[in-house]
Amino acid sequence: MQRLTGRLRALHALQTMLVLVLAMWALPARADLYHYTYTGNAFTMTAQLTDWPFGHPTQGRDFVLESISAEFYTAAPLTAGMTLADVTDFSMTISPWYGRPWTLTPPQYPVACPGCVSLTVTGGLSIGEVNELGLPGVWDLWTAYEAIYPTGRHETLTLSSTRSLDSLTGGYEAFIGYSGGLAASPGVWAVTQVVPEPATLMMFAVGGLLVAWFARRRSD
Questions:
Q1: Predicted confidence (pLDDT) per residue in 176-194, tens digit
Q2: Which residues contact residue 42 at a Cβ distance below 8 angstroms, ignoring those fewer than 6 apart?
């Protein structure tokens, strides 16, 4: 009797797993999250040092290669007309910024406290056209950073990217100004599906049930 009860339980477990497998194939093949990335080409940034000693060989200017990249997530494939309201985790990065990448993630609103920096990061995103690969064909991305230090000094940096121009502008008080850009040389867009499809999740569940069932059979 005990052996018959065990066989009935095993049969019931196999029926349950068969139902789960059939349900897995019935689920739509759709990812829940799309990760879009943009990698720009390198361009020359000019740093104008206004307080550099007279007679400097570059007239108080430094030249550095920089590039702009961006990334964001959407819950559905990208379409023309999408804006910042349709995406999450939008950010833009300038690299290398004085030796390391610097990422700006809007919106970060001003935070005022004694001895702290007043910081604001704003930004925007507009998709004007999507190509046959589902990637932006016409776009407008930008972020703007503004910081006021406890001493009253002021620093700004704006990054922007379109199909026709990647550029940056900014400065620190009257001592240094940043500028640079690259026209008619758009970077590369890519997209990845970062969340497993429902069918994949169901497959993991079925695999877990199988492991548990075999472990139970061995212990009986």
A1: 899 999 999 999 999 998 7
A2: 65, 66, 67, 182
Question: Residue 206 gets which letter from DSSP?
Answer: H
Q: What is the tally of helices (H) and strands (E) in the chain?
A: 2, 11
Q: Which residues of 137-152 are buried (b: 16+ CB within 10 A; e: fewer)?
A: eebebbbbbbbbeeee
Where are the chain's structural domains?
2-28+197-219, 34-193
Are residues 42 and 65 in contact, defined by beta-carbon separation less than 8 angstroms? yes
Q: What gap in Å lies between CA 47 and CA 129, rounded to an integer?
A: 34
Report DSSP state, residue 58. T
- pLDDT for 57: 57
Instruction: Report the relative pairing of strands 100-104 and 118-130 from DSSP bridges.
Output: unpaired
Which pLDDT value is given to residue 32? 73
pTM of the complete model: 0.71
How far apart, in whole angstroms, are the C-alpha atoms of residue 174 and residue 215?
Answer: 72
Give residues with Cβ within 8 angstroms of 164, minimum separation 6.
183, 184, 186
Mean pLDDT score of the chain, rounded to an integer? 80
Name 183's Cβ contacts closer than 8 Å, sequence gap at least 6. 164, 165
